[in-house]
Design goal:
- The chain has a single domain (about 1-180), classed as Hotdog Thioesterase (Thiol Ester Dehydrase, Chain A).
- The chain is globular.
- Helices cover about 30% and strands about 35% of the residues.
- The protein is of the alpha+beta class.
- Strand 7 and strand 8 form a beta hairpin.
- Bound molecules: coenzyme A.
């Protein structure tokens, strides 16, 4: 079926798919051991390595939700809260919090685990936007998210405001580009 949204036409599947997918269906977790080559001169993991892990986990979440190719459109926040040291595990967990038409917001939480004690601490959080693509590389419609847990509902309820801010930033950037 071909559905028209705005000026574009999108090929979508009909049926249960467009009724929505549970946030938990997009959940992805990843754990890795931080070794000395991954760290800086302070013995803690390079920020760029953490960013790469976040992007990878978020990409898996987005692909699980859309079941299509996706691209990272933006990362509007990444807060490093505490370092992760060599010998600790880096533990990432993410899920799709919200969708618009073709874009998906993904939240990723990063924790450090002391493998001797099991103690965990929050080290970073990030919100990223991914866009689903069809076979010709054009943005493709994605199903809405069905939040179930308290955390999923909390993230879902805050997502519209973040979406508006992102759109505003994008418009401002386009305006600046026109003026240059
Ligand atoms: C992301 C991309 C596909 C959007 O293409 P576009 O021609 O701008 O498409 P549109 O204007 O129709 O926007 C499509 C969706 O992307 C969203 N979008 C585009 N740029 C965005 C940005 N910077 N931040 C958040 N969302 C963005 C739009 O809001 C829209 O969402 P919606 O359909 O849910 O309303 C395109 O900009 C691109 O390919 N960027 C490069 C991606 C990339 O190389 N990533 C790194 C490697 S994976």
């Amino acid at each position: 079926m071909i559905k028209s949204i705005g000026a574009r036409e999108y090929i979508i599947e009909v049926g249960d798919w467009m009724k929505g997918k549970k946030a938990s269906q997009s959940k992805a977790v990843m754990t890795d051991l931080v070794l000395p080559p991954d760290t800086n001169f302070l013995g803690s993991i390079f920020g760029g390595n953490v960013m790469a892990y976040i992007d990878k986990v978020a990409c898996i979440c987005a692909m699980r939700h859309a079941r299509s190719m996706v691209v990272t459109a933006s990362s509007d926040s990444l807060d490093f809260i505490s370092p992760i040291h060599a010998g600790e595990a880096i533990c990432l967990e993410g899920f799709v919090t919200y969708t618009h038409k073709t874009s998906m917001e993904v939240y990723v939480k990063v924790e450090a685990e002391n493998l001797l004690t099991g103690e965990r601490r929050l080290t970073a959080t990030s919100y990223l936007t991914f866009v689903a693509l069809d076979e010709s590389g054009k943005p493709a419609v994605v199903p809405p998210v069905i939040p179930e847990t308290e955390e999923e509902k909390w993230q879902y309820n805050g997502a519209l405001e973040r979406h508006k801010l992102r759109q505003q930033r994008r418009e401002e950037r386009k305006q600046r580009e026109k003026e240059e």
